[in-house]
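Trying the structure run again after the queue cleared.
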Amino acid sequence: MRIGGVVAGLPVIAGPILLVLALQHGSAFASRAAAGVLLGMVGLAAFVLAYVATAKWLSWPSAVGAAYTAFALAVVAMRPLSVGALPALIIACGTLVLTLGLLPRPPRVDAEPLAPARWDMPFRAACTAVAVVTVTAIATTLGPHLSGLITSFPIITAVLSVFTHAHRGRDEAIRLLRGFTVGFFSYAAFCFVVAATIRPLGVSGCFALAAVLALCVQATAVAASQGHVLRPRQITPPQNEVSSADAIPPA
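Done. Tokens:
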């Protein structure tokens, strides 16, 4: 579940939205919107932490309700803050690092992989289409900064967390959310490249570079997660046992 969360962290919704905003409203608008998405990742981190904290005591409906409330409060807090690409990236990555430090580490339990539901891919495609149409339709009214903040709204994250929580339990949902948080670093890399390079490179060059960098960051995250999951546990023999070498008397 951890690795699945890492892979699911790709900007499959933010990427198309930023592309449409760039084509409709120009590079400057898309650059500011991408910086807004980076700040909106504070809301994603708040969503993850609130879900995990609530899930310790309550069921998934209460957890997802508390998580969305935390996201909304974080977006309200970020709305007055308008910064450039680099400060926004520092805020986003710092928040993700802090979130990973605060998230618990449930013990790993060997279990058969949970087969993806038939509705998984169609649902993701539908979420992407609805989000792109909605945000781009109201972008002129909202402006680039608020459009970026709203683009980070967690749809797929919430659905997959609830699905995992309901079918595999709280610990597996937490492992999934840890994976999502790791995957958000590639999300941040993508948005940073768009915010920083879309004006000098143009739309096509900028999005090509952003996609390549996001995939590189994602591959690194997957490799690190696989090493964490597959690393064999060190078994220390009890101190009262005598090794076979010590049992052989000297010649």
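Residues 1-6, 229-251 have pLDDT under 50 and may be disordered. Worth checking whether this holds up in the mutant runs.
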